[in-house]
């Protein structure tokens, strides 16, 4: 049963992450919040989405290679 919960959480995270972040951006725009909150949302996307970690790690590997 624990594995089912883990699978459901990963499915929810995969399907709802970006729509929630876009909704948060729209809410920040409509309520006319400070731009820093938008920057915090972008930072959260970069930290929480595993694809950006993979891309960042690969870029670090590429630029740290000795040629």
Summarize the structure.
This protein is mainly alpha-helical and 67 residues long. It has helices at residues 2-30, 35-48, 50-64.
Can you put this structure into words, describing what you see?
The chain is flat and about 50 Å long. Helix 1 runs antiparallel to helix 2 (35-48). It is mostly helical and 67 residues long. The mean pLDDT is 90. The longest helix has 29 residues, at 2-30. Helix content is 87%, strand content 0%.
The tally of helices reads 3
Q: Based on helices, strands and strand pairing, what is the structural class?
A: mainly alpha
Strands, count: 0
The succession of helices and strands, N to C, reads HHH
Instruction: Tell me the Rg in angstroms.
Output: 16 Å
Span between termini: 50 Å
